[in-house]
Write a structure and sequence with these properties.
- With 276 residues, this protein is an alpha/beta fold.
- Helix content is 31%, strand content 24%.
- The strands form 2 sheets. The protein has a 7-stranded mixed β-sheet with strand order 3-2-1-4-7-8-9, sandwiched between helices. A 5-stranded antiparallel β-sheet has the order 6-5-10-12-11.
- The protein is globular.
- The termini are far apart.
Length: 276
């Protein structure tokens, strides 16, 4: 059995602020330790469920957060950026199940550190009129390859968001929202047990009903944070302006949607580097 794990950082146990998840911050080393505890707990769970091959994809920021020498010996790792399919890089139809560990709620939701992909760029991402965040897009990418997402961990707001698109998924709630940068943190010594149990149960109970596939011919509407960002995005072939901060793009599938998100994010990052 092959199992895929995408690991983000905002939804990791014990983390409530960006100082734990950014490389240039003093608390980043503590954040990485907390990440490794959650990730290895998920790996132990899927091994107990019978996984023989496990691939982990580092999906946060620079995507170089997982400490490979501390990774469970039965798992391999994709690390670094850029890479195809970004947060779901390496996934294909040969996998039996996928897990999303340490994820967070979408932009402009109530979640702790809620955002979608690039918090400085995206205000909202809609596919066929429905708003999705990183969890929804990642689940859709898994669905494209007919792989069920069977377990998700993060805060209580994310758990509610997940139920709208993945009603059969196992969730491990590791914190509860207090504000955008404050959370009621469950003790990490206990949350790892919940993550391991949810990962095991998710793999054992996973079936085709857990596959989320929005289909083909997807009408994508993206609202950017600034007008200038929409000006930049409008220059991408196939993109049309839909308003001051809105752009529209008719995508043939979720792969194209994800590529558009990555392209807009990367192009807008150039603005912050001072090259325009």
């Amino acid at each position: 059995m092959k199992v895929y794990i995408s690991v983000d950082m905002e939804g990791i146990s014990g983390i409530s602020h960006v100082r734990y998840i950014m490389e240039d911050q003093a608390e980043y080393s503590r954040g990485r330790k907390l990440l490794m505890a959650d990730l290895n707990a998920a790996i132990e769970g899927v091994i107990e469920a019978g996984a023989e091959e496990i691939l982990v994809n580092d999906a946060h920021g620079s995507m170089r957060n997982v400490v490979v020498e501390e990774l469970h010996e039965k798992a391999d790792l994709i690390s670094g950026f850029p890479k195809q399919n970004a947060m779901m890089s390496g996934l294909d139809s040969t996998f039996n199940a996928a897990l999303l560990v340490g994820y967070h709620a979408r932009a402009h939701s109530w979640g702790v550190m809620a955002h979608s992909f690039n918090g400085r760029v995206f205000a909202d991402i809609k596919i066929n009129g429905i708003s999705y965040g990183e969890t929804g897009i990642s689940a859709a990418l898994a669905g494209y390859y007919k792989v069920p997402v069977v377990m998700v961990s993060g805060d209580d707001i994310l758990a509610r968001e997940v139920m709208q698109i993945l009603p059969h998924v196992k969730t491990a709630v590791v914190k509860k929202r207090v504000s955008a940068f404050a959370a009621g943190l469950m003790n990490p010594k206990r949350t790892v047990d919940g993550i391991r149990a949810a990962a095991k149960a998710g793999v054992l109970n996973g079936n085709a009903s857990a596959i989320f596939d929005p289909g083909r011919n997807l009408q994508t509407e993206i609202t950017l944070k600034e007008v200038l960002q929409a000006d930049v995005a409008e220059s991408i072939p196939g993109v049309e302006r839909g308003g001051e901060r809105q752009i529209r793009f008719p995508a043939k599938d979720i792969i194209e949607v994800n590529k558009l998100i990555e392209t807009i994010s990367n192009a807008c990052c150039v603005l912050y580097m001072g090259l325009y």
